[in-house]
Design brief:
Chain lengths: 217, 261
């Protein structure tokens, strides 16, 4: 339990440093918002002429993608930096420092490298989410909201697990940058669209082997 | 000499082979996802907006290859050199700086195309098939437009790199232009399917001339006269970019001098 307090302290320090470099943070925020909004616009354009993909309309697919980006960013806050940089740290020997601290190394690693770069993603994902819900005229009642929150939590945990699994492979192969990209970006590309758009084999893989389908579908 | 540079950077890529295997898988997956989505979208339709599914397959494949050809880290490289100051050394080297950067990038890109994009494309062709242009002059015009597009893109890229002199960080410029590029160049969704107002905006921007327009020539969406019109527009933009580039380049050298005292 003492870890919780310690973790909060670490995050506080990070947030303070973020406020310190306000200009850089705002530029970052601005640039990232543009990038992620473009992704949504492209989905919208892609389906514009066709009306629907496998029975899913434009805003429904955007809703899916918002869940995807949202949970990815929530996991990214805590896990993106520690695990994408793990390979480099192991290669350069910096990782030894982590092992010598009087703390659980895993805990130390993730608390040291909390990332402040994900606010933009969360904000964009959340606004798109709200926007789509509004357009689709979905009414959320008490239990639905609870269900939604649990879904987001579960999705975040799956994304987090993907970070950790593809990151820790670095202990064996050291250079994990490409593997990481493969798992986190290319494979995740599947769930940008409803998985009923793919053939059966892919659907089974995405459900049972790499359970990305559970993130949003 | 520049040919030698292309060869050297090509060979350099050979040293990281394991990465390149995973990379092939990644490219393959992205292409596969894209194709599955397009074929689902096309399910039960002959054509949409005058575009047949075969054209779409050709679009995705040619687009992937051009994408490999114009992949560029030149602007971020220039950016890094500006930030750490090593660009001052490049100024005094007895080579044409831009040609030097271009050759190295081209060598890497050729490697990427041969060992990674082409295998992935073969897989796509195996499943979905592939059509060549109907007439030889279509092909010639396409290649011509493609070369122009590549030149256009690299000039644009140099300007981006030089912008770091004013912005002091390579990342923001990179992200924002990438987003713009994706949106108005038609690299993800061809401009055929764009809503009217977005298409109109893209007409005023040079981005579509880099990949989209050459491919429309390739799949035969444009008539002969229109193809020449496209190439003419490319020339205009190349001249514009060339002049801008010169201007930025001269400007940036004076900035370096100021910093150097």
């Amino acid at each position: 339990m003492e870890y919780v307090g310690l973790y909060c302290q670490f995050i506080q320090i990070k947030l303070k440093s973020m406020v310190e470099y306000r200009g850089a943070f705002l530029m970052n925020f601005f640039a990232k918002s543009i990038v992620f909004s473009t992704e949504f616009i492209l989905i919208w354009i892609m389906i514009y002429q066709f009306q629907n993909i496998a029975g899913w309309g434009q805003y429904e697919v955007m809703l899916l993608h918002a869940l995807n980006i949202g949970s990815y960013s929530l996991a990214g806050f805590f896990l993106f930096h520690p695990f994408t940089k793990l390979g480099q740290h192991i290669q350069s020997g910096d990782f030894d420092e982590v092992l010598t601290r009087p703390l659980n190394p895993f805990f130390y690693l993730i608390s040291r490298e909390f990332s402040t770069g994900y606010f933009a993603n969360v904000v964009v994902a959340f606004s798109i989410f709200v926007f789509c819900i509004h357009i689709l005229e979905i009414r959320l009642q008490g239990l639905d909201i609870l269900f939604l929150l649990i879904t987001i939590l579960g999705a975040t945990l799956i994304q987090g697990a993907a970070f950790i699994i593809s990151g820790t492979v670095a202990f064996w192969i050291v250079q994990n940058k490409f593997l990481m990209e493969f798992f986190m970006f290319q494979t995740r590309g599947f769930i940008k669209y409803p998985i009923s758009a793919y053939n059966k084999v892919i659907q089974i893989i995405l459900t049972f082997i790499i359970p990305y389908a559970f993130i949003n579908f | 000499m520049y040919f030698e540079l292309i060869k050297k950077s090509f060979m350099e890529k050979f040293t990281y082979r394991v990465n390149s295997y995973i990379f092939i898988l990644g490219t393959l997956l992205s292409l596969f996802i894209l194709m599955s989505v397009w074929s689902t979208l096309y399910r039960g339709r002959e054509e949409v907006n005058g575009v047949q599914f075969d054209d779409m397959v050709a679009y995705v494949i040619v687009n992937a290859i051009i994408g490999g050809l114009i992949y560029s880290e030149i602007h971020t490289n220039i950016g890094k050199r500006i930030v750490d100051g090593s660009i001052s050394l490049d100024f005094i080297k007895p080579v044409n700086f831009k040609a030097y950067m271009f050759s190295i990038q081209l060598g890497e890109n050729l490697f990427r195309i041969i060992f990674n994009i082409v295998p992935a494309c073969l897989f796509v062709i195996f499943i979905w098939g592939f059509t060549l242009p109907e007439t030889p002059h279509q092909m010639i015009l396409f290649l011509f437009a493609l070369i122009n597009g590549v030149i256009l893109f690299f000039y644009f890229n140099f300007i981006l790199g030089l912008l770091v002199f004013w912005f002091h960080s390579p990342f923001f410029v990179d992200w924002v232009t990438k987003a713009f590029f994706q949106l108005f160049a038609g690299t993800v969704v061809p401009l055929w399917f764009y809503p009217e107002f977005l298409y109109k905006i893209s007409l005023f921007l040079p981005f579509r001339l880099i990949t989209y327009e050459p491919i429309t020539i390739y799949v035969g969406q444009t008539s002969l006269a229109e193809s020449w019109w496209i190439i003419f527009q490319q020339f205009i933009w190349i001249i514009v970019f060339y002049l801008l580039n010169k201007w930025f380049w001269n400007k940036s050298q004076t900035i370096v001098n100021i910093h150097g005292g």
